[in-house]
Amino acid sequence: MTRDKDFIRENYKLFARVKKNFYLNLAFALNANKLLNNKFVRFLNRNGSLNKLFYSDEALLILTDVLRCDSHREAFRETIEQELIKRLNKKSDEL
């Protein structure tokens, strides 16, 4: 049983590493949306046209798949956590 869990965990880590850039690109798209917090931009976006610019139908479908699928959701979370840890370690090394 333990060997099976180790096998699954190792293959999951490989899956997450392979998908790393995919998840970071997805996070970038989500981060780009913070621009919409600006009052002027919110005014321009009153009909949602800027959302369509940031999020195509395909992008929304991909995001939906990531949120629905346990494997993708966990890999996305792990990718973001690892990137954050890497950046925080780099900042602490610079100090």
Structural class: mainly alpha
Distance between the termini: 45 Å
Number of helices: 6
Q: Please compute the radius of gyration using only Cα atoms.
A: 17 Å
Biggest pleated-sheet summary: none
Stretches with pLDDT under 50, minimum 5 residues: none
Q: Element order, helices and strands? A: HHHHHH
Hey, roughly how much beta strand do the residues contain?
under 5%
Shape label: flat
β-strand number? 0
Mean pLDDT: 77
Helix content: over 70%
Task: Describe what is shown at a glance.
The protein is mainly α and 95 residues long.
Description of the molecule:
This protein has 95 residues and is mostly helical. It is 83% helix and 0% strand. The chain contains six helices and no strands. Helix 2 (20-32) packs across helix 6. The longest helix is centred in the C-terminal third of the chain and has 25 residues, at 70-94. It starts with a helix and ends with a helix.
Set out the fold topology.
Blueprint (H helix, E strand, L loop, with lengths): L1 H17 L1 H13 L6 H6 L4 H6 L2 H12 L1 H25 L1
Helix pairs in contact: 1-6, 2-6, 5-6
